[in-house]
Amino acid sequence: MLGSTHGTLTTDFRARVEACGETPRTAVHSSAAPSADDAIPVDVSGRPLHADVPDLDRFFRPESVAVIGASDADGRPNTGITRQLIAWAERVGARIHPVHPTRATVFGLACHASVADLPEQVDLAVLLVSDPLPVIEELADTKVKFAVAFASGFAETGDAGAAAQERLAAAVERSGLRLLGPNTNLNAFEEFRDDLDGPAIALITQSGHQGRPVYTLQELGIRLSHWAPTGNEADLETSDFISYFAEQPEVGAIACYVEGLKDGRSFLLAADRAARNGVPVVAVKVGRTETGARMAASHTGKLTGADTVVDAAMRQFGVIRVDGLDELQDTAALLARARRPRADGVVVYSISGGTGAHFSDLATEAGLTLPTLSQAKQDELHQWIPPYLNVANPVDNGGHPVGDWRGRKIIDAILADPEVGVLICPITGPFPPMSDRLAQDLADAAERTDKLICVIWGSPVGTEDAYRTTLLGSSRVATFRTFGNCITAVRAYLGHHRFTTGYRSPFDDAPRTPSPSYRKAQALMRPGQQLSEHAAKQLLRAYGIRVPREQLVTSAAAAVRAAGLVGYPVVMKASGPQLGHKTELGLVKIGLTSASQIRDAYRELTDIARYENVPLDGILVCQMVERGVEMVVGVTQDDLFGPTVTVGLGGVLVEVLHDAAVRVPPFGEDQARAMLTELRGHALLEGVRGAPPADVDALVEVILRIQRMALEFGGQLSELDINPLMVLPRGQGAVALDALAICR
Q1: What is the pTM for the complete model shown?
Q2: Which residue, 37, 55, 359, 387, is the most exposed by fewest CB within 10 angstroms?
Q3: What gap in Å lies between CA 617 and CA 561, rounded to an integer?
């Protein structure tokens, strides 16, 4: 991880950033966001389009603090907490006022009998009481800005606790103050080192102990500026702190440990604000498995959400999801401190051909770009590296030069290549003096380049001087202990800057007024009912989505006439509001080419429906569309994020392969196309085994129209499923062959 030299933030850091041609961020809202005096705009369904950023300055640096339930009695839990709060208040320059009904003084400070007796309006009230609800109601009259409740026994304990938390949240809303907790801890009042410079990590955790590895980064020279332990999030939540931290000029990255999201929309708005400001958000989000989700719910009392949707939503808005706390600390440290990349190319430089080949395999498999160095560059490197060694990339030096200047020449020559943005040197174990000189040359080169240099120090000991002093003492070298963490962090680093370069918020283009399509389709909705296939297709047609030529008939004679109008061959299907999977019931007949087949099929379909006791509104006689790629496009309602759009391989493959991609509206054409590239079966759209390429543009258009429908109907549309959507050869469009819609 990146080390640090000592000093102050403002002068040194600003000078270094400006030397790279970049301007430091300042604590102002993005130009795309509304000012504090403006009303927050809403989309067509009334949901906000920008994050409401809370002013948390007085929480983290209050001028006055009340400690309610303060104690200095030996053996009392509140005594240790009171002592820590007094020390913290002294560090941040705050006046502290103990409150206790039976004490005249606490640790030599005048103690007040009640909240009403406080000598001044306080910025922050810390509640060391088992039931914070009565105190919140007392604080309502004091105009206090913030409160912290440590007490447990709320939503994390079950239904009764959840009800108590709802009462607490309601009291907080009435009071006008903002609450951290309940079920939180003292992490917000930790002592942070003030002798470290450079951009800092701001930390958010729902479980305090899980933030310890990131907090401990300070011992390796990485600056930490804030720690928000959100607890049960009865009021202030993870999203509030992401939005706030994204506006702070000293914050280089936000590291999060998330168990459950309180509100998916708020989270995406906060992530969007961070992306607008170019601030990376790195998150561990538990709940990938059923067991993990169950444990998370019991600890925080919140929904974890369907993990596939959470994962997709994070990627969609640039949140970097990692699995382990070690990845969290390494990735956040790199993203906070490294300068913007000048190129995406990664060069691996090692003293062993085996080490270079091993790392290169892993890096390439992870998606990093390892460009082959030009012949001219290879010839240059062979001035100092024996000609029998491979220097195309990875660069094998055969043993870093120790006795002269050649080592720096090699490193500088690699960094001078315009295709190279990152140099990675895996040192699998100490081998002095070679490893010592290599580490020093890398550290020296890092001070003179604007490109990223990463070192993996593989020794399990970690006490070597080259590691502890040379590498960790460098403010410019990113040092890792494992191949995997280095690859994860570098991939996130390059990906973050690609994502935020020219970033345009999807919320800026979200519809704010209903479309004519919505007004036409609204008349077709049936609250609380499933629509028949015919009615669902009319819904699609209202949004300009192509469906086959078809007619709904109620007699065999009408079916024959319809087939003549539609054109042979035809498909006949039963249509009714309670029909989902028609094929399994034998209620679909395909490839019908004559009037006699039509009459027989009509009789058979109605007989099956009568036997299965399935009510019908008629029989559909449909155009038969054969040649194309079967896809599925649909809308579902997620408990956290609301309507979500899914696309995947259709027909029976959707149930067999589960090959699908998800996005949370709003999103643009770029995300719609990205959904398709995420599919394992994406090659089918490009044309395989002689098949022509599919009309991907038409498929993207359908996805965007379905998204518009999801946004406009919001919660009114419980589920929509187009399966299959037949994507015809390029230039011929896409046709929704079947559809299911369920209204709320």
Answers
A1: 0.89
A2: 37
A3: 18
